[in-house]
Amino acid sequence: MTATGTIDRPLTHDPLKQAPMSPHATTSEQPNGSATADFITTGAITSRQNRTREMQLIPEALARAHMDDRLREVDAQRHAVRLVTARRMQRKAERVSLRARRALAMAVMH
Description:
Blueprint: H1 37-109
């Protein structure tokens, strides 16, 4: 006995390899408001494929966004470090300039 798969356990999860949906009504007349078989199978397969593709790309998009955030943080940190270093060097240069001015004043006085 070979099982062809059930709704809960299909033979394959690939929408293209699954059997197309067949109308379950034995008469040729469809009930009012029902979709045609073509619309049911092609629309379902396409939406499943798109949803699957999108869901597979979600982790990549999250990783890309995370890396962009990290790069922005690193750039901001580098900028802050450069700013702190520049201010420190400016204060040091001001102290050296003041020391040189005092030394010159002392030399002129004597």
